[in-house]
């Protein structure tokens, strides 16, 4: 029978996992697609409760949210509706919230969908023509 001994102290360090709590996780768990064939509009209610539509340029998108450059300033934590229109005519109206603003460009925003959009994720995958991911 073979003699099984624990690894020497010299070899233990390759198995040590760093469990330092200061390591930050960006929280992204979905594939982010880079697309230029999707039109984006952001709809938010103004103080009078009237819908205000803002056009936006899509930076990247996933089934959980998107990053856009908007034509107008948006407030963090503002609840909005994201309207996505694909070139094949398919349209998605998704409830979402503005969760971050770029520190380098005040008109770049991170937007999180209220619920995971599996149908959108499937459509993104089905209509993807260029393999550009983030």
TrEMBL record:
Organism this protein belongs to: Methylotuvimicrobium alcaliphilum (strain DSM 19304 / NCIMB 14124 / VKM B-2133 / 20Z)
Pfam entry (one): PilZ
Protein name: PilZ domain-containing protein
GO molecular function: cyclic-di-GMP binding
Domain of life: Bacteria
Domain PilZ: 28-124
């Amino acid at each position: 029978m073979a003699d099984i001994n624990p690894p020497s102290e010299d070899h233990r360090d390759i198995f040590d996992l760093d469990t330092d709590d200061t390591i930050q996780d960006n929280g992204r768990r979905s594939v982010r697609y880079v697309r230029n064939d999707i039109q984006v509009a952001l709809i938010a209610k103004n103080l009078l409760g009237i819908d205000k539509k803002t056009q936006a340029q899509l930076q990247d998108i996933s089934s959980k949210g998107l990053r856009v450059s908007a034509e107008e300033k948006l407030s963090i934590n503002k609840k909005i509706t994201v309207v996505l229109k694909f070139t094949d005519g398919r349209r998605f109206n998704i409830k979402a919230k503005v969760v971050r603003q770029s520190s380098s460009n005040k008109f770049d925003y991170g937007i999180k969908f209220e619920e995971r959009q599996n149908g959108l994720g499937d459509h993104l995958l089905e209509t993807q023509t260029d393999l550009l991911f983030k």
